[in-house]
Specification:
Elements: H1 3-14, E1 19-20, E2 32-33, H2 35-43, E3 48-51, E4 59-62, H3 71-77, H4 81-93, H5 98-107
Parallel strand pairs: 1-2
Antiparallel strand pairs: 3-4
Helix pairs in contact: 1-2, 1-5
């Protein structure tokens, strides 16, 4: 992962500017973000679009995605699929806080 992007992501996770959510990058009300959603927002906050099949259940998309990145976006964000999977595990399954995820990222290197 690009060191500058990693540093910015860690800082954003610890900033207190983001309420933590699960499963999707950004909650339907736009107030909560997953750890990956924070990465999206700091990379390009103007990339969000609101959509979904039912107006009652809106979905926020970032560059066409709402939960995980495809290979194109992984490359664009300089993120490995393995790191994406681990962040999803920490955020959505293990219920780790943004602070705990930031600490994980500080110690993570691509040789894992």
């Amino acid at each position: 992962m690009n060191k500058t992007v990693k540093t910015r992501w860690i800082k954003a996770l610890r900033s207190g500017n983001y309420l933590q959510g699960k499963t999707v990058f950004k909650s339907p009300d736009g107030k909560q973000f997953s750890a990956l959603g924070v990465l999206c927002d700091i990379h390009n906050p103007n990339q969000w679009t609101l959509g979904g099949l039912l107006p009652k259940y809106p979905i926020w998309f970032w560059d066409g995605r709402s939960e995980t990145f495809d290979d194109y976006l992984l490359k664009k964000l300089r993120l490995s699929a393995q790191l994406q999977d681990r962040i999803i595990q920490l955020n959505d399954v293990d219920g780790k806080s943004f602070e705990e995820i930031a600490t994980f990222l500080e110690h993570y290197n691509e040789t894992h």
